[in-house]
Amino acid sequence: MRLKDPRNITVPCADGVDHDRRLIMTGLAALCAGGPLISLNSPALAQGQDSAVIGWPSDVPSWDPNQRFSPDSQPLFKLVFDQPLDQDPALHLIPKLITKWDMAPDGLSLSVELRDDVSFHNGDRMTADDFRYTFFERIKAGHAVDTKSSFGKVSDIEVQSPTKAVMKFSSPAPTAPTWLGFLGSYIVPKKYMESVGVEKFREKPVGTGPYQLVEYQLNSRIVLERNEKYWGPKPAVRRVIFEILKDPSARGAAIQSGQIDLTINVPVRDIARLQREQSLAAEINPITRVVLLQVRNDEGFSDRNVRLAAHHAIDKAALSKAFYAGSAVPLSIPVSPGSAGYLDSYKFAYDPELSKKLLAQSGFSTAKPARIKFASTNGHFPSDYDMARAIQQMWKKVGIEAELETIEYAKYFELNRAGKLPEATLYSWDNASGDPEIYCGYLLNPKLPMSAWKDPAIGGEITRLMAATDNKARIEGWKALAKDAVEQGATIPLLQSVQTLVRKKKLAYLKYGNGWVLANSMRWS
Q: pLDDT below 50 — which residues of the chain?
């Protein structure tokens, strides 16, 4: 996959140090108050370079990696657990715990071969029984796992030997290999989980990954230690500490003061300031996520005219210029540029006068505005809340009055699953795989919990495309569906998402096109 890369800013770091959270927060408080910072020469901070402290915007939903499709948790889960398949930095599917895989021509079965040299952190050997348990038995047993959406077609998994299994599907599942390297697809230990129970597993998780969890403070701190018996390449960094800092300004202050070694999703406007810090490297990287408005098909958005008016009123180029220094590509469909389902030829117009005409057809105007509710996170991705406020003002100018509410990242998932998101929600939709099914198919399928759009009319075509085995026809079908969905007002794509990342210059990491920031790829120079 090639992503459009309109801008990639890097700036010339101090040595890496391991800090305790009390010292970090003390330093941040001092910075915010204009007081003195903690001295990096303090004996309390002077520790070796076999550790790294990362400022992260959100906690994991739980330590059951199959439970929730939480995109920002994937770089954390991938350290403690392994997936059957993986992706390289260019997003090609590659072996991981599975060494070989073969999809039947009819899409009804997938044969896999697993490694024979992998052990869980507790010493138990990983086998095909654990594969079957993760992707079939847990779902059949009614565990509260999101993998029931991605692997709901699995009718059985036949275990042929400790290293061989065949997944069988109730209907064609051509993207099953893609999902084996995507959200929630982490092999968990059958014997251990059944012996301690799901709740105890969450308290003391066991995976096969390159790190083990040694300390966890909810919404505060995650401490990982290198798994010295890991089957794959050993990480260069022995100890990784994630400080959960939800406020983007706090993350920016922490990296500027030297209290942490790397952070993501600081406001783009802060990048220019951080460029002037000689000890830091700052980056703006386009990724496969799509910034969009998830919309409902009822309440204040039950009228197609109102939905389309809301879309035509948004000046996406202005949003990119104001909040992303022009680095975020405006989008007309909810698919990232460079991926298989992208449509170069289709453009959805910015036309506020057309917005006014559409609203007038439904009896609305600036004097008598259409009223909707609007939600946004604040600090989950760069400039999210600032962009939401700008959109709110663009709508006001044409005759849409939006009541803006701030929600936590975790609250978004809760509201979406309960069908309680407002008419419009600003969100950065993750698709680490780049496959078009995981853009429109999961964004708009009314039968899936991650979709705010519940109109069944589009569901039939989604079901058909999810079972299509001719890849060329499948891709063309998703392109057509994406265009139709936009013209129905079922989704309002805005921009290709960017990830801001600031790090100490001497801390190198491997850059992925989907925005993964993996501590096991980090190395001090």
A: 1-47
Tell which residue, 71, 61, 152, 60, has the closest CA to residue 414. 61
Residue 470: CB atoms within 10 A of its CB come to 11
- Report the Cα–Cα distance between both ends of the chain, in Å, rounded: 29
- For residue 191, which amino acid is it? K
Q: Is 508 exposed, middle or buried (0-12, 13-18, 19+ CB in 10 A)?
A: middle
Q: Report pLDDT for 48.
A: 52
DSSP element (H, E) containing 477: helix 471-487
pLDDT of residue 225: 98
SS (H, E, C) 19-71: CCHHHHHHHHHHHHHCCCCCCCCCCCCCCCCCEEEEEECCCCCCCCCCCCCCH
Q: Which residue has the tokens 């939006």?
A: 402
pTM of the model: 0.84
Q: Is the dihedral of CA 64, 70, 71, 75 positive or negative?
A: negative
The torsion of the CA quartet 43, 45, 49, 55, rounded to 10 degrees, works out to 180
What is the distance between the alpha carbons of residues 367 and 166, in angstroms, rounded to a whole number?
63
pLDDT attached to residue 9 = 33
Q: How far apart are CA 305 and CA 361, in angstroms?
A: 8
The residues, any chain, with a CB within 8 Å of residue 19's CB and separated by 6 or more, are 44, 45, 53, 241, 259, 260
Please tell me the distance from the alpha carbon of residue 327 to that of residue 445, in angstroms, as a whole number.
30
DSSP 8-state assignment for residue 520: G
Long-range (24+ apart) CB contacts under 8 A made by 93-97 are: 93/177, 93/178, 93/181, 96/181, 97/126, 97/131, 97/187, 97/208
